[in-house]
Every structure is written in structure tokens, then in C-alpha cells.
Design a protein that fits this description.
Chains A, B, C, D: It is a multi-pass membrane protein. The structure is a homotetramer. By secondary structure, chain A is an all-alpha fold. In chain A, 66% of the residues lie in helices and 0% in strands. Chains B and C meet through helix 11, helix 12, helix 13 and helix 14 of B and helix 3, helix 8, helix 9, helix 10 and helix 11 of C.
């Protein structure tokens, strides 16, 4: 891989730095990006604290613009270095990157649109992507593998939980009614979810004897059926782990990942992997 | 199976469409029914939101009548197409179907009985029935199998939880008394269930030192014994899955299901399966 | 066993009826006792509801006396039919039986002592004893076996949880202080238990930023370590079940139970088992 | 080992008593220390209860000084009996021991510094160390082993939970805003943690329909992903236990522990183990 690097154009070189993490520069870029994202989220948090914002408004604003410029450069490079820019622009991460960059520019035109900087928190999701590149993610891979292979069962379980919550929420609405806080069916369903998942905020609580009886049944149900997802994942985890080695490259043409170590062509679009 | 269809009467044909899902028409019927049920539940939800009901009262009312007429037709067809109608009428689903259909007619005679339309949420249970017919329910079957084979142990566990809650609730009533919100024993038992299941609404909370000590014990107990149902289901899940293939037919005479693929006679009443 | 019954005295016969469940009379006695206990608990519950007590005070009082007389007879028979009465009288169940019987007699002398009837709820524990006698408790036995063999690990876990709660409770007391509801260290420890076990009443909640940070850590800790008892029990459950057959006899001399089927002498005191 | 004891100096003898538990005196020292720690924590608790402190202020103060003097002696002996004192002084336990001893002396100079005695609760951590020496800790060792080998996976899981909470907390801040109790992003993240871990204090609860919808999603997510740490630990527990025997000695030179039974030299620094 190191040999072939020399012949490539700057675009291909940039692509490897930004989208992959096999080279030294790639790893360095990822670490810088990681720090920038964490700093940007920290900034948004501090701005949201009124007492802090009052004291350091100017410093925070300067910080915002530095982050915005950095993100703008990164976004431009990402668009430029890829073969099919629109594939990136309309991908989930592309949209998130765009939304994280635009609010400060918008705030120059529309006052108040600065509040949208909080959307930047979504960039934290990229942390998972970056970390995926690191080597110590064997643990994470096994976790994901176990989750993926049990996802069908968990989906059935969640679907079951939802239906139960709709039915029980509706029944509670009929029993308790608006005078006890169950003002409408969607709110009652919200309460049923709060109760079944054993969260129990207590902002809405049944007052009638019958309501409390059914609430008890919901709680015991919730307390018992938590055994189901747990049992599913436990069973999956005790199975043998799969041992397919994938690397951190992403195809320059179609962005697909999880290429088998030493792959030369993309398994999806057939482009040469560099 | 397809050959034998030709010779059957329209009743038998209708039975296959409504009660089974092996044929094209059967699947289509199920999907239409699924949509109708979901729409009817959506309608009930929207009606329960006061602000929404005020604006769109007439539209919602028209929607209600459309659903009611559809359900009436379905109910009639179900009764007509089965060999022993009373078996269906007095079955759980038969009663639910009836209760979902009747409220709008009742509202013509008794004002206010319209509130019963919420009972229609129970029809959501039929969703499980309909989905059972689909092919991708291998996951769901395995889940159910694991649950069924561990149901005896879970019943013992739930019984234990209930007894513990009654005892602890009574003790808390003696310690805290009516002045701290534990107004009577049933309410104290309700509180014990809220606490043991780790829901913790907070509408009732112990105030005395001794009460808080016992509450702590209940919480730690509840936190620990959740391991029991989880352990049961986990153990069951790690066992091998059973591999008996059943189809989606239901007997036209006795409604029994879970006939082995290719069965010709009902295992329960001996009627010919068509 | 049936042969040897004939030669025994009425005391031995009574012992078999009351303390065992192998004979027809023994089973009948157990069922009657079960109903009496459930009725007595029901009565206590109804009395605690003020509105109900006002209406039916006399009927409830009569019911109380009937239960008291029945329990008095049972208690006397238990004392009479056993070889070493003091062993029973000072056993846990002996004390509970006594406390369940005495309050009504006391209420004749000391007004107000009637409140102690609630202690009768403890008799519900005997339900487990009675049910143990039934045959269908294979499930329950396996559960108990798994719990017993993992009890050492669970004890270590609970001890760990308790120490953590004491430390964290003390720290929270120092951070939040009396002005935020953490009035003293025991109360702070109570709060830590409420939080770690994910119950979360919300009657006390941290107000300072540092307090909320530590609270977050406690919650995530509690959310994660619940995996430990669950893992322990799951591991125990997946092991093979033991298959030692014990019967329901209890030694007439020393009350020990769990004699191996067909045992002739008590494994503990050497008395003949009848 | 018993033979070599005779030739050692009093320092080495003291080291064995204080830092190890293989000899009779060592075990006795540990038990006395355990009682002293528990007594000191008890004392701090009682002082924190205002009503109690008012009544018994003098007795509590005398108790404090007795504990302080005992801890001072212990601390001095620990420093004296070890070959490299600074290694102990700046170790975690060394700092905790120092902080537990100093507050009463400080209170002579600075009024109010007495409040720091609560730091003494941290000494409870030493309880784990002392108990480790006892023989019945097979259970605890297995627990720790299972936890350690699954710590990488659990760390990934916790990291994932944290990122999710930051993102969801930020989104909830944008939706609900300060008027519904979500006054700033850190507080919203705190709320997200409270909700995801199913604690649910209820001091902050979403009021808007959209907020409640997202809250429902967070709750169901939290309710489902608890299966992950549970599955990890369950899988680890079902694996075979390791069987390496370590003893309770700690190296007099470098404090390292977990020497293999019958080791003569420290595996870390090569000093002779006595």
C-alpha cells in the first residue's frame, strides 16, 4: 500500500488522509478532528449556561468562528477529495457536517439562528467512526456483531413493547381521565412507556384504585420482560465470535467500508482501492 | 392445497381469506385489516386531544363511521364464514372485535357511549396474530418458545414478588402511616411494587428514618432479584431452538392453529383442513 | 409409609396432618390454612381503608374474631402435636404464628393494640412453605438451587453496593448539604441507594452542578453493575440442574426438613421419621 | 515462611503485621482496623444528624479524638515499617489514610475544617483490601476476574451511552428550552442520563409533545440497551474460571501484591519476600 501512494494525485492523497486512517497523516487528521469536535461541543455547552455566556460572550463568539472556519475547510476538502461529491453531500454524515458548519454564517443574516449550533452535537456521532479506525476496537466489533445478529429478535420485542404501551395507555386514559393528569391518549401512552421501562418520572401518577392496580401490573410486566432483551443478547454473546478481518479503508468512489484486509478492488462498485 | 381450493364453496373460500394467510387474497385481506386497525387507533388518539378534536370534529366523526362500517362488514363476514359461529363470537378476539364495532351505534342511542371507542385499542392485539402469519417470524417464534418453556419459573418468581410486596407494603403502612402518604394497605402495597420494580414515581415516599431504611432494603432487593427472570430467560435462550414447522392455517371447525405443515386433518377435532 | 400410620398415636397422626403434606388430610389442612391466611390478610387490607372500615366495622370485627379463633386452635394444635414444643414456639414461624394470633386478645386489654393485626401479613411467608409441599414446584426448586449456589457471589456484590452507597452518600452530603435536601449522612446514603438502584423517587434530587455530575456517575454505575447479579444468576442457571429427591416430611423431634425420599431416621437428630 | 520470620528485624515483623494477613497478628490487626474504620464512619454519620449532635456533642467529640489518635498511630507505623515510605504516602490508600487523620488536627487551627472528617468514609474502601485477605473470597475473585476480562467491552458501552446522552441532551435543550426546566445543555445531559438509566427523578420532565416523544425513545433505548452490559458479563461468567493461586503477601520494597503462593522473590522488583 505504501508503494502505490507515491504515484497518486493530491486528490487521492487527500482522500486517504481524510477518509482513512491507515497512514500517519490519516491518523493525525483524525485526532485533530476529534479534538475540534469535542472543543466545538464544549463551546456549545458553555454558551448554553447563561451566567457563563454573560461573562465570556466575546471569547465564546471568537471560539465559535474559529471552529466554524475549521469545519468549513474540512467540509470543502471532503467535497473536493472525493470522486462523487454528491454521494458525500447527501449522506447522513455529509448533512450533519453541513448543519454543523452553517449556523454561524446564517447568524450574520438571520438573528437568532445561532441557536442551531447545538445541532453540532450530532457531529459527536463521527467519534464512533473515528474510533472505529483505532485498533483496540475488537471489543466494540464483537459487541456490534452480537447486537446485529440479535436485532431481529430485539425489533420484535420493541414492537411488542410499543403495542402493549398503546393498549395500556389507552386503557389508563379511560380509567384515570384528564382530571388525574392523563389529559389525552398520546400522553397516557407516554406515561405507559415511562412506567413499563421502570423510569417512573412521577410527573403523572395514577390516583384511582383501579388505575393503581393496572399501574402495578404494568410495572411488574416491565420488571419481568426486561429479561427478554437481556436473554437475547446474553445468548448471542455466549456464541463464538466471528473472525473476519476488515481494514479501515473506504472506497474513494462509493464510500463503502469494511473491505477485507488486502483487498485491491471495492467489493461494491469495483473501483480500485488505493 | 391449491387444487382442493377449486371445489370448495364460497364460505370455505371466505374462511381461507379471513382466517388464514397462505393465499394471495388472504395476505391482502390481512394487510388491509392491519391498516384499518392502525387507522382506527390513530383516530381514537387524535379525538382524545381536545385542541385537535375542536378543529376537526366533523372529519374525525366521518372517519369513525367509515371505520365502524368496515369493522361491521368484517365482523359479519367472520361470523358467516365459520362453521361454528358461537365459538368465534365468544372467543377473546370475537369479543374484542364486537366491542370495537359497537360504540358508534350505541352513541346514536346513549349519548356519551362514544368514549368506549378507545376499547378499539385492544384490536391492536390482532396485529400479533396477523404478523404471526408472515414468514419472518422465526425470531418471534423462538422468543415465544423460550418464554413459554420458562413460564413456570417466571410464574413462581412473580408470585414470590407479589407476596413480598404485600408483606412489605403492610409493614410500611404500620411504620409510615396515613400522615406520610401511606393512607391504606392497598396503597402501601402499590408503593412497594413501585419501589421493588425500581420504577419509583415519588408520589409517595417514606419520611421516617425506619421507613427509609426498609425502603432501602426493598430497593436493593428489587435491584438484585431482577437477575432471576433474566437468568431464567438467558438460560432458556442459550438452549437449542426447536425446529417444528407449523403453518398458518386455522381449522374451519374449531379455530385451532399451529397445524404441522402438510397436515390434512385438524389435530384437535379431526375436521378436514382445506 | 401408609402401613406404619396405623400404629401411631393421635399426636403422631396430628403431627403428620399439620406439619406434612403427604397424606390426604395433610393436603386438606394445608389448603384450609392457605385460605384462612389469605382471608385474614384480605381482612386487614379492608380495615385499613377508612371509608370501608366506617361502613362495615362490625362485620370486619366479627371476621377478625373468627380468624383469631381459628389461628388460636391451629397454634394450640401445633404446640400439642410436636415432641419438643419450645423448638416450634421459638422458631421463626412459631413467633410469627403467635404474633398473628395475639393482637385481638390484647385489644381487649390495651386499646389500640389492634393495629398489630397487620403483623399477620408475615403469615403469608407460610404460603411458600405450604406451596413447597405441592408437587409442581420443580421449577421453584431449581430457582432456589441456582440462587443458593450463587448466594456467596451475590452477598459480595450487595456488600460492595452498600459500601459504595455509604461512600457516595457521604460525599453527596458534603457537596449538596442540608439546604438541598441532603439533611444528614444517613439520608444521603438513602438517596444514594435510591439512585444507584435506578429507583429515583425524586423526593431528594441534587441541585448543584457538581452534585448532578456525581449523581450522573452513580446512575451510570448503577445502570452498569446491574449486569453483575444478572450475570451470576444466568451463569448458574445455564449449569445442569441437580437431581436429589427430597420429600415433604419434617422430623417430629427437631423439625428438620429435606429428608431424602424413603429415609427412615432423621439425618439430624436420629429420631424415627414416621 | 515461619522459619524465616525469626531472623527478621522488628521493622520487617511490623510490615508483616500491617501489610499482610498470613500470620495470627496480621489477622488480628486487620480485624481491629476494620472495627475502627466502621466505628469512625458510624461516628461521622451520627454527627451529621443535628438532633443527635446537639444531645451528645461532647461524647461524639471524645470519640472523634480517640479515632484520630488511633489512625495517627496506624499511619505512623505504616510509614515507619515500609522500606520506601514515599511510595506508600503518595499511593491512593496513603492519601486517603492521611486525609482521614488530619481533619481533627486542622480543626484546632481552622474552625469549620471539622466537616472534612466525612472524607473518612473513603477509608471504607480499605474494607475491600482487608476482606481480600480472608479465605472465603473465591467468589469475589471470580467476580473481579469476570469484570476485568469484560472491562474493555463495558468501557466501549459506557462511552457509547455517554455520547448518546450528550447528543440527546443537546437536542432536548433545543426542543424544551429553559422554560420547561432544561435551563442549559449540561443540565439537559444530566436529564438524559437520568432518563436513559431508567432512574427518572422527575425533577425535570419534558412538557412538549415532541419532547415527550423523544423522551419515550430515550426510555425504550435505555430499557433495551441494559441488555448489553448484562449480556457481556453473563457471557464472561459462563466461561471457565481461572485457577491461579495467589497469596496475600505484599512486597516490603515495592508494595506489589498477588504473589504466587510460595514465591520467594517479588515478581516486580526482585526483593526477597519474607
Amino acid at each position: 500500500m505504501i508503494d502505490s501512494v507515491k504515484k497518486r494525485s493530491w486528490k487521492e492523497h487527500l482522500h486517504e488522509i481524510i477518509y482513512e486512517a491507515d497512514t500517519k497523516e490519516g491518523k493525525f487528521f483524525d485526532i485533530v478532528l476529534l479534538i475540534a469536535i469535542l472543543a466545538s461541543v464544549m463551546l456549545v455547552m458553555l454558551e448554553s449556561i447563561d451566567s457563563f455566556d454573560l461573562k465570556f460572550h466575546t471569547s465564546l463568539n471568537i471560539g465559535e468562528w474559529i471552529i466554524t472556519i475549521l469545519f468549513t475547510i474540512e467540509y470543502t476538502l471532503r467535497v473536493v477529495s472525493i470522486k462523487k461529491p454528491f454521494k458525500y453531500i447527501f449522506s447522513f454524515y455529509g448533512v450533519v457536517d453541513f448543519l454543523s458548519t452553517i449556523p454561524m454564517y446564517l447568524s450574520l443574516i438571520f438573528i437568532g439562528s445561532q441557536g442551531l449550533v447545538a445541532l453540532r452535537a450530532l457531529r459527536l456521532l463521527r467519534v464512533f467512526r473515528i474510533l472505529k479506525l483505532a485498533r483496540y476496537i475488537g471489543a466494540s466489533n464483537k459487541l456490534l456483531f452480537a447486537l446485529r445478529s440479535s436485532s431481529a429478535k430485539i425489533a420484535v420485542f420493541l414492537f411488542f413493547v410499543l403495542i402493549i404501551c398503546i393498549i395500556l395507555g389507552t386503557i389508563m386514559y379511560m380509567i384515570e381521565g384528564a382530571e388525574n393528569g392523563f389529559t389525552n391518549i398520546p400522553k397516557s401512552i407516554y406515561w405507559a412507556i415511562v412506567t413499563l421501562t421502570t423510569v417512573g418520572f412521577g410527573d403523572i401518577a395514577p390516583q384511582t384504585a383501579l388505575g393503581q392496580l393496572i399501574a402495578s401490573a404494568i410495572m411488574i410486566l416491565g420488571y419481568s420482560i426486561i429479561a427478554i432483551p437481556t436473554g437475547i443478547v446474553s445468548a448471542e454473546m455466549t456464541k463464538k465470535d466471528s473472525d473476519i478481518d476488515t481494514n479501515t479503508q473506504s472506497c474513494p468512489a462509493c464510500l463503502k467500508e469494511k473491505h477485507i484486509e488486502k483487498a485491491v478492488f471495492c467489493y461494491h462498485c469495483g473501483s480500485t482501492l488505493n
